[in-house]
Amino acid sequence: MNKLFHMQQELDSYIQAQHDLTGRNLFEDKVLALLVELSELANETRCFKFWSLKGSSARSVVLEEYVDSIHFLLSLGIVKDLTNFNEWRFDTSSDSLTTTFLKTNQAVLEFGQHPDMATYTGLWNQYGTLAEKLGFSLKEIYDAYIEKNEKNYERQKTGY
After folding, report:
1. Structural Rg of the chain based on CA atoms
2. Which secondary-structure segment (H or E) carries 85?
3. Is the separation of the CB atoms in 62 and 44 below 8 Å?
4. Residues above pLDDT 70, as percent of the chain
């Protein structure tokens, strides 16, 4: 986890410098960004779309959306100085994927209201449960994060 926190800190610093955001409190913006990314992930899985016969997006698309959330999850830990977090659990659950998304949304909101190590750990573990539900391994997430981190730098350099 330390390497991911370090990579995210470098990206955050780069973005803050590029957009003249140094010193600005971005906590609430990042909480909302995490909620949006979680919703985009849910949308790609289509788990809640009972009215549609169309299946989930490709696994690679779902993984990329999942990793977008991880960027903001790391960034929030950096903002609140919770980077000593290192115990990420991938628990199994009998909940439906929809229920897992709702619980993850609730965990984001709880952390937003009470940003401490207990709620941060709970949020990470809820994301671990979501990863387990989606069939993603820690290695897949790690590799996809590194790839997306590089892509995010390129986007910043090209005026994204």
Report:
1. 15
2. none
3. yes
4. 99
